[in-house]
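Reopening closed ticket. The problem is back. First fold of the pair:
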Amino acid sequence: MREVYSVTMKVKKAEELAEKGKELLDTGDFRAAQKAFAEALELDEAAPIRNNLALAAFMAGEPRRALEVLEPYLDPENEKAGANPFTYALAGRIHCSLGRKDLARRLLQQAVRSFEEGMRELRRSGRQQDLRSFREYTVIIMRAAADLEDHRLVFDLYRRWESHHISWENKFLAAAACFNIGRYKRSASLWSSIAGMHRLFAVMQQLAFMVERGVIPPFEMGYELHPAEKLQEKIGDAGASEEARRRYVQDSYYRVALLAWIFEDDSSQNAGRAMYSLVYYGDEWGEKLGRQVLEYSGFSPSLKMAAADALMARGILREGEPVPMFINGQQRLVEIKKSPVSLEPDEELDEIVARAIHLRDNGQTEEAIALLQDIQREGKFYPPALMILANLLRHKGELDEALQIMKMLEEIAPEEPALLFNLAALMLQMGEPQRAREYLERIDDRETGNDFRQKLKGLKKEIELAEVTSLLFHDTEYLSNEYAEEQRLKIEEKPLPADATLARGLKKMLLAGRSLLGLRPRTRATPPGAGGAAKRLSHPLRQPGRDRAGTGQRRTETA
């Protein structure tokens, strides 16, 4: 009786140590995890414990130590060896890391056979609980194929065992494999199905579609997914060292992180810096990206200029050389010239600016624009002239051109109140109140005059109204859908009450929103029989996802 009790206590203690080891693996403390698993193995010789001890050693950068741990299970003369699919797949990964790819492939094939034989045995025995945990082995087997860079085999294994997968990691691996073999639509579909697991998955879905359309050049996607903290650490390192920037741009997930900035807001400073880094440090792929950005209509002028700057810095483009570029809705040959920035007052240029202002005040907008553009054509970068030119273009409705000029000015004077005010007004005009507010909040008005402060108050109120209106229309769309669904369900039960109109409810919401801002209800004459349709003023609110996914590299074996 005492012996049985002692054995039971040992097993229980081993389970506690093994659980502790798994937690340490998840936090990346591989050496402490090794210690916990080694102590557990002394108490209980169980395959999951030995496998996880080997995994901890492998993750700690000790592949030979990991093989020593697995050796008793891999001995072909040991008929009672406890090897399972996890054992063979992990051994394959370790040998692959040591450059023994032929042996790694044989172990992978053995892992596949062991898994399928095990599944048949478990189905016969009816052990449903064991069947579920056994299915988790599909992840490490697919990872062993990924380590061999056999992308097609990774996807074939995914399809072969599609009914067995219980982890999001299977879809992640399959999505990366599809991306690497050119099946971009399937890749996008797989990433879409797990978008909630990691904030980059939605970006990868968008990336796959853009590669499919030829907008972004293809590259090989890695199978090691970095957690958000690791990516932030890399971004910090890259900011301090050119060598680190060059190295990190070769990492596929660092590339995706930079592309995320571009996809999110292609006219932001971060987006411009990201584009420059990708093109400048991206070697052959970076050159292809830069050229495609110039020729594709969907990229903003500021991104095109960032790509052109990087190509010029690499010596691929030369100053004054005609470059094919899609800009302002047309394919053009554009000559890129470097203009010296004139930050000191210039009497001659100030006279031209004064004439342009006089023309503007007399309603001669086109003449004023032409006068200021002549300064640009002469290769002179004079901020006062550019500021007025940008505003004239803005009032004329040429918003992209105005934005391009203002973004160049922002690079030179990022804290200039007048520039930030005009950028906020431009964002509002472009239907982006959230970005307008971001510029507004950057303005330091302590050293500005009373007239400027009054204009600032007026702009702030306009932004608040646009935000509320945007939010209300966002909510009304949701309410409309909910209301329609509710009435669809009720219509067979009873007729709709005469006073239950959605329009009345929406009108109250809009009135409430205006009253919050202290604004009078807006009245508008409507011709008889004319209908009205609300136009949304901004993009749908973005809600950043939470990172619930880890690296996927430290999956332990379930005991």
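Second fold of the pair, where the issue appears:
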Amino acid sequence: SLDSYMNNFYTLILIMGVVFELPLVFWLLSSLGLIYRSFFRKYRKQAVVGSMVLAAIITPSGDPFSLIIVTIPLYMLWEISAFVVKKDPPEEIEEEDLPTVFE
């Protein structure tokens, strides 16, 4: 029915609108120093699987074509986020490099 179709349509639009904010969220987390570029390299494989799981939840039908069509933009958002986050973790300062204090 039209009511069911519109309900699915609005739900899909709402979820995709929230998901498309991910690069902004990751940029903010990076600005706060909570995540770094190495985070995206380390969890790239999990991002592919997570994108597929999220796409399976989002898509109203169960066909593989719809799953792939939704998975690709989700994963691309992950890669865009990795590109936007340009901050590397701070380097560890060894004790030898610290200035000495005499009492």
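Update: turned out to be a display glitch only; the data is intact. The chain has a mean pLDDT of 84. The helical segments are 2-19, 22-31, 37-42, 44-58, 64-84. Please close again.
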